[in-house]
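Batch manifest line 96
LIGAND: heme C
JOB: complex structure
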Amino acid sequence: MKKSKLFILLILFPFHIFANDIEINVIIENCKSCHGQNYEGNNYIKSLKPLEKEEFISKMIKYVNSNNDHVMSRISKVLNKKDILKMADEIYEKIE
Ligand code: HEC
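JOB STATUS: finished
ARTIFACT:
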């Protein structure tokens, strides 16, 4: 293959897809620090496991939109709807 063609391929290749995946996984690692490795919670924090995927999504959207001092309201401000949907796929497709 000619060098110029390889160069164009590299430019067109959607590396941002990988970047996005890494970002969601990193965010989820953060969630685990409070919610537990398998989202099972602890003495202070409820398990995320009993939630339905749809419930998870609507709760997260409520947190993003609420302006109270709850820890989830505070930390969810950096998330958008797309992030939440991706997280839901990631979390609820891995929970057995
Ligand atoms: C600093 C600790 C902390 C971090 C980090 C954290 N959470 Fe939470 N989360 C909480 C607490 C505390 C609650 C409230 C639990 C309760 O009401 O018993 C909560 C509640 C929730 C709920 C609602 C659970 C329910 O049954 O009503 C969801 C969903 C949730 N968190 C998702 C997440 C996600 C997704 C992340 C990562 C972006 C995350 N949390 C990161 C502390 C945390």
